[in-house]
Amino acid sequence: MGKHLIVGASGQLGIELMLGLQQRYGVDAVLLSDVRPSPHPEAAKSMFIAADATDLDAQRAILEGHDVEVVYNLVAMLSAKGEVNPMAAWSLNMDPLLHTLELAREGRVKRVFWPSSIAVFGADASKDGTPQNAALLPTTIYGVSKAAGELWCKYYHDKFGVDVRSIRYPGLIGFRSMPGGGTTDYAVDAFHCAQAGQPLTCYLDENERLPMMSMHDAVRGTMELMEAPSECIRIRTSYNLSGCDFTPCELTRALQQRVPGFDTVYAPDHRQEIAASWPNSLDDSDARRDWGWSPRHDFQGLVAHVLDGLTQQSRVDKPVVNM
Ligand code: AKB
Questions:
Q1: What is the pTM for the complete model shown?
Q2: Fewest CB atoms less than 10 Å from the CB: which of 77, 232, 303, 317?
Q3: Ligand 1 centroid to 170 CA: how many Å?
């Protein structure tokens, strides 16, 4: 069994996936790579290679030097940050993916994972239970790059037999690392504000419903997708994946039940427009049928899981990692 390489290992999802893979396959089976060192203490247990994901030769050198079976390429500039510099977002979201697909075509790796997002959908897609095959008319450059990337994945699979698999993640909420530059980040901030005894200033409307998922479910789903037999993976663009959905107002009420006194002040900004173009909830029946996906955390379960995780973490004095 070869190694699991995470490209973009020092980011929000990279840290969580690292912990999941280390636990599942052992620290020696996990290779980490990023331009910046990992801020998480557990990263020291696996090999870390400093490399630029936009440099094809640097990425090839990693695969030549190590027995890598699976690459998880997580490099991305998220939706809100991407709007500030669309050309930089396009390059960062596309170049590393194309390098990984090309290296897989050369036979240097057996399987590839690449994350897509609910940002591929635009206002034309039906809002509730957005189907797998809804129109992809994204409104952000992040969404445009994810929609294009999905098609590149399918092309490399259909044309060259590359075993590439992908998930359209909703907003991901964990307690071990902070996101940066996304539209769904408010929900992670809400938990940290509640725990710190501070009010949240929310940049979305109180009734803006978005699909969300616990990091725990997202990492488990990713590992289950990558372990599924290739013939089960019938969708080679990217799978809709659903956890739960809620509005800022509903999240505030749920947090108030556990943290009395917590409150939210609403000051919607440009991110509200992005959120308004995204689904309220997703239909993930293809993922359930093809590889047995089933979320463990509903809304209340997610709230309890993340708050408990933050409390435990503060007791053992482990810092939350800022991205
Ligand atoms: C973002 O808000 O940009 C991301 C996403 C939904 O892909 N969290």
A1: 0.96
A2: 317
A3: 7
